[in-house]
Write a structure and sequence with these properties.
The chain contains six helices and four strands, in the order H-H-H-E-H-E-E-H-E-H. The chain is of the alpha+beta class. The radius of gyration is 20 Å and the shape is elongated.
């Protein structure tokens, strides 16, 4: 899909303000509401907008710990990687998982109520047969910068 500046503006604004009204979005990108709505629907249909969500302040809800885990799996076969990746979908505490190139196979972001709950989860993973061979735990002591909107201006800048 070819994107023009208005499409990019729609994506940028929505990535920062997901609850903006259609009328306000149209005004910000310089379109009337119907053409803006049509563009938005095309962007959604093309899969450029994967969803809308709220950023939750967990500290206001419950005590928790965020842990990053770098891990290696036992066998480097397509079947083992697929098995591990499928298994990750079933652990609610695993809030993100990335396959890596380099020293480790995966990086997991895990949110649990405390370190004991984190270790219990890791014990379940180790005993589950999904192929974890070693893992390294990194406890978040304070957030410095969270996952923000994608840097569209940087990614699409002309060199």
């Amino acid at each position: 899909m070819n994107l023009d500046q208005r499409d990019l503006d729609i994506l940028r604004i929505l990535s920062q303000e997901g609850r903006i009204t259609k009328a306000a979005l149209a005004e910000r990108v310089g379109l009337s509401p119907t053409p803006c709505w049509d563009r938005l629907k095309k962007l959604e249909k093309a899969g450029l907008i994967e969803g809308y969500g709220a950023q939750i302040n967990l500290k206001k809800i419950a005590s928790h710990v965020t842990v990053f885990v770098a891990l290696e799996i036992t066998e480097h076969t397509a079947a083992r990687f697929q098995n591990f990746e499928t298994a990750m979908q079933h652990y609610e505490e695993v809030t993100a998982c990335w396959a890596l190139g380099g020293g480790f196979d995966y990086l997991l972001q895990i949110v649990t109520r405390d370190i004991d709950a984190y270790q219990a989860l890791m014990d379940v993973m180790l005993d589950s047969g999904i192929g974890v061979s070693r893992y390294f735990t990194y406890v978040v002591t304070k957030p410095v910068k969270g996952a923000g909107p994608p840097p569209l201006n940087v990614l699409l800048a002309q060199s």
